[in-house]
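User: Before I run my own analysis I want an independent prediction to cross-check against. Here's the chain; please return only the structure tokens and, at the end, one sentence I can use as a sanity check.
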Amino acid sequence: QVQLLESGGGLVQSGGSLKLSCRISRSIFVARTMGWYRQTPGKQRELVADISVADNTNYADPVKGRFTISRENNAVILQMNNVKPEDTGVYFCHGDLVRAGEIRSKEYWGKGTQVTVSP
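Assistant: Structure tokens:
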């Protein structure tokens, strides 16, 4: 079994910075695409940013120019700069992972980490 292990959430003031990390728990799995999603009460989970195995990135419009997603070995990093109160929510790591030697990938989710931006 493989897990996506998240870290880095917390409380930050508006205008500050925060870094979220997500690591794949077993090295025999590699990610085709990894990303971060945000969920707020009463709303569906929505894409914040993702990155492909070729390092192509995709960002939600509200975070463009402020957030940067990158890959480091078997992990994905979300650097959040100039955060705003509307960035508040639970951030979930998502991975489209394939086990070494196999072809088909499967989707996995982390347990979520809370990010709270105070005014």
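Sanity check: The chain has a mean pLDDT of 96.
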